[in-house]
Amino acid sequence: MIPFRKETPKRRDIVTVVNKYSDHKDELKKDYKCRCGYCDDIDIWRTVWYEIDHFVPQRYLRTIKDTDYSNLVYACRSCNNSKRAHWPTGDESVHHKNDEGFIDPCDDEYDKQFIRCTSGRIVHQTQLGKWMYYKLKLHKPQHEIIWQIEETYNLINECKEVLKTIDSPIIKDRLLVLYEKYLDYTLKLSES
Questions:
Q1: Residue 14 buriedness (CB in 10 A; 0-12 / 13-18 / 19+)
Q2: SS3 at position 58
């Protein structure tokens, strides 16, 4: 088993007044490092755009504004649609109770709810994590597949660094050309 994600996203303290919450998307993407706050999938290999989730759903907001940056999460469409307006406590200030509800993905406690198998499959670790796991549908195979693609991409980049150390210019050049072709191929796949 390995950690659920490499680092916990942290929202900056952005208090800029905006007309609509979607105006924060670029800033959220930076803070979440292009990853869904809930499943940690990177947005590069997704075929559907990323969205903005209201951590506390809009219908339960009383003191928090719809556009408050501190309540927004950069989310893949799958997690955003799965979470929807689920908020078991019905109270904007109570995020979870009796092992039902959510932990803000920018809270370090979120990472304690899940781990990953070496295949990339997400596994819940607590009862609250189990509730979130099924509510967010973190069991979907797409999360494991995207994790595997990213790991493969990272390994290939490590290979590129090793290639730079090869003494034979002919072998080195040929391998670097193959590497560049593969990289172009994977990037084209992600754009289609």
A1: middle
A2: helix
Domain boundaries, the chain: 7-141, 144-191
Write phi, then psi, for 92 (nearest 5 degrees).
-60, -25
CA 150 from chain center: how many Å?
12
How deeply is 161 buried, as exposed, middle or buried, from its count of CB atoms within 10 A (0-12, 13-18, 19+)? exposed
- From first to last of its 192 residues, the chain has per-residue pLDDT tens of 899 999 999 999 998 889 999 999 999 999 999 999 999 999 987 767 899 999 999 999 999 999 999 999 999 999 999 999 999 999 999 999 999 999 999 999 999 999 999 999 999 999 999 999 999 999 999 999 999 988 888 887 887 787 778 777 777 777 777 777 777 766 665 565
Helix or strand (DSSP H, E) at 69: none
Which of 58, 55, 35, 57 lies closest to 46 in space, CA to CA? 35
How many CB atoms neighbour CB 114 within 10 A?
22
**Structural tokens at position 48:** 């559907």
Model pTM?
0.84
Dihedral in degrees, nearest 10, Cα atoms 33, 37, 41, 43: -50
Q: How far apart are CA 97 and CA 78, in angstroms?
A: 24
Percent composition of the chain: helix, strand, coil (DSSP 3-state, to 5): 45, 10, 45
